[in-house]
Amino acid sequence: MRKIGVFPGSFDPFTKGHEVIVNKGIDLFDEIVIGIGVNSAKNYMYNIDNRIKHISSLFESNPNIKVEAFRSLTVDFCKEIGANTIIRGLRDAKDFQYEKSIAHMNKEIAGIETVFFLTDQKYAAINSSIVREIHKNGGPIDAFVTNPDTLV
Ligand code: ADP
Question: Residue 152 pLDDT > 80, yes or no?
């Protein structure tokens, strides 16, 4: 049976911090699906097609890393694609506190486990909302995002 992990997030935008989590995870899973969760009540800076294109460009050489958007509960998306593990990234204890509750609830409602990868120290300060702020104000984001030119 193929081990499929889902790495869900808003990825607005997908940063080098997110990238390192996928690169760590792919050694343990046969396939990783990067799931861009779309919440119609939320306003995103980068539209969904743009985020799909950007993330796909980063992993185009690896056919075991896929990118998909989903609008349902994360656990329902996992079931739909035959994944039984959620992958999340941790920067600090604050991430852990937040992620722990979600992981417990996903286990409770759907029996789906979550595995966590600790980010590398050099990426621990990267935060999508700060990257958005810099980009919006015309600052450089290439230290935080690979291939920023693909993001418009
Ligand atoms: P969400 O809206 O689901 O929190 P994000 O796109 O902000 O989506 O984050 C997706 C996942 O990536 C989360 O598990 C988050 O903790 C993790 N993450 C965010 N930034 C980093 C980073 N710099 N290094 C490692 N993991 C990160």
Answer: no
